[in-house]
């Protein structure tokens, strides 16, 4: 697990999501990355059931249950600003049992699917974020394998991102902010994805032309 | 008592006199009671002498009736009777009858006395016994004893016979019971070795390895039956066992896995015709009952089947560069290009038919026992793994599988890490690797041995290490010259024989990897021989020279034990010498070596370097401190 940066690629003007993705992947292939299969990251939302809420009527917390094909045997559960749990895939079955406490928000499943490219020590994943049948955006994830400390390799990552994202290079992710010198883990990646999905959810829907 | 008035009792004697007559004036004349003697007379008259003692009762009855008479004289009726009797014999006094009776008694007594006295004399009268009923004949005491003994003996015999009969009955019962009990005790012994369970009225056992971790789907149940065809009348055979086991029909006979390596490539048509040779059954321990051998053989068959099933499954599923061929009971694979490894399951049943057909015995020389043993070990390893604590989950609710696999979820392992966890090698791959290694090792040994026998000088020594791995062995090869072993230590090669390659580590640190080709190793070793020929220590041949004579073409050096003459080349520069002829009288090993080397390379120039510059060619010739030094140089 190396340091990972998850960012969103805005859809190019006048083009659909698909076309933008194709653009990106072509750039990567020209760069010399080799295709290594597909990936998928998905997220489901649950909120704490009303029965467990206190009498004060505090807002129910939202819990996100995510899966990442990079860690096929794991399941991630996280709260917005809270802890992230890494569990076995049996966790999904457990959620069914906890129906009384956590209710799934309707139509909240959001996922990103795409291809996985390996370029020396870098692992690049370009995926289409879809919610239901509609494509909402593009996610780009870059992982630098050898390093596990964010502060050491952020500049290198940034440079690499610039090389193929150009002007759409993101700033340092929020997860790096607090814990510069701490060891980076898969949970941080999932937090980044969660933030990305939330952002995309709030965005307006991509114009009709983008829906395929 | 007090307060009760006394009762007056008046007593009147009952002895009243009898009234004789009542006078007219009312006076009563009483009879005088009888006097004592009158009474006695009266009583005496009443004695009836003719009556015996039998009439005592009547007498007594009569006497009782007389008692009140005796008490008082009131019984007038009796008196009257007596008086009447008395009056029958008038003029007789009351004692008359008594007297008569006594007299007659006396008479009779006298007569009796007389008779007795006459009879006693036995002169005139004898007594004859009166014939009576026939008494039992008077017996001899011996016969009596005999007969009594016989009787008593017969009685005793009866008792004994009864007892014996009871005993025999109990003994026969015991015997039957013993057979019964034998069955139970045999069953107990069986139970100590094998798992048994009772299903209905049958006793079934389990001879599979399922409880030891096997996943083979064979049921492996055998049935225990009671051997009841025993005839109590006939003699029980020595190896009789009241217990018999019935094993499943497909596990009968004996089996083993034959692993062999052949050099030639087979024809496709020859496949599947593996000749089985019937391995003689391993001798069972002398004390073990026949069911033990039977069950062990069946279990062995089951294990061999499992091994073969696992191997053939892997042979079909696993992709490899050269596909494995599975034909009937044989798996053929090619570890090396010209090599064929065949693994076959040889199962010979105990039928007589098959015994006849299996008389043609293939030589078992090409069967690799080591690999067969290893196969057994590997499958047992696999069994143990399924049961090991690494597999058994803690807590019990966790899913089955390797411990690290269970952790891979919570620790977010990625694909590379997961792949590294999963053991990728199957049984077949392992056994092929082992076979490759064995083959490579044996071929290396053969190469070294052939070289050693072919080349006499220098010598090659091989020290094989005793402790080897299944996939790696090592041998240390020394190339030395005879007599110079301590000096020529420079060629030492460590050969690490792996699965497909041989890695050579030189003494000077160079590492060379050779492939499995036999020729490569041979060439390499030969090159090392040549190196050795060049390698030697700096040998100083120095001889003090007594006199030197220089001729046009040669120089003669006279030394202590002979002469060395050297002819020098025209290019003599003082340093470079061409050794033309060296003549020595004595056998000096060093010099001989130099000669030998020179012989070996006749055409080449041997560069001789005189290191000692104290050899000055001309100037020092006359001095006695001239040393002629030859040195053969090479790289050490």
TrEMBL record, chain A:
GO terms for cellular component: mediator complex. One of its GO terms (biological process) is regulation of transcription by RNA polymerase II. It is found in: Nucleus. InterPro entries: Mediator_Med20. The keyword Transcription applies. Its main location: nucleus. Keywords: Activator, Nucleus, Transcription, Transcription regulation. GO terms for molecular function: transcription coactivator activity. Component of the Mediator complex, which is composed of MED1, MED4, MED6, MED7, MED8, MED9, MED10, MED11, MED12, MED13, MED13L, MED14, MED15, MED16, MED17, MED18, MED19, MED20, MED21, MED22, MED23, MED24, MED25, MED26, MED27, MED29, MED30, MED31, CCNC, CDK8 and CDC2L6/CDK11. The MED12, MED13, CCNC and CDK8 subunits form a distinct module termed the CDK8 module. Mediator containing the CDK8 module is less active than Mediator lacking this module in supporting transcriptional activation. Belongs to the Mediator complex subunit 20 family. Component of the Mediator complex, a coactivator involved in the regulated transcription of nearly all RNA polymerase II-dependent genes. Mediator functions as a bridge to convey information from gene-specific regulatory proteins to the basal RNA polymerase II transcription machinery. Mediator is recruited to promoters by direct interactions with regulatory proteins and serves as a scaffold for the assembly of a functional preinitiation complex with RNA polymerase II and the general transcription factors. This is Mediator of RNA polymerase II transcription subunit 20. It comes from Propithecus coquereli (Coquerel's sifaka). The gene is MED20.
Automatic annotation (TrEMBL), chain B:
Residues 51-81 are annotated as: Disordered. Residues 62-77 have a biased composition (Low complexity). One of its GO terms (cellular component) is core mediator complex. The keyword Secreted does not apply. Its main location: nucleus. Pfam families: Med17 (PF10156). Component of the Mediator complex, a coactivator involved in the regulated transcription of nearly all RNA polymerase II-dependent genes. Mediator functions as a bridge to convey information from gene-specific regulatory proteins to the basal RNA polymerase II transcription machinery. Mediator is recruited to promoters by direct interactions with regulatory proteins and serves as a scaffold for the assembly of a functional preinitiation complex with RNA polymerase II and the general transcription factors. This is Mediator of RNA polymerase II transcription subunit 17. It comes from Propithecus coquereli (Coquerel's sifaka). The gene is MED17.
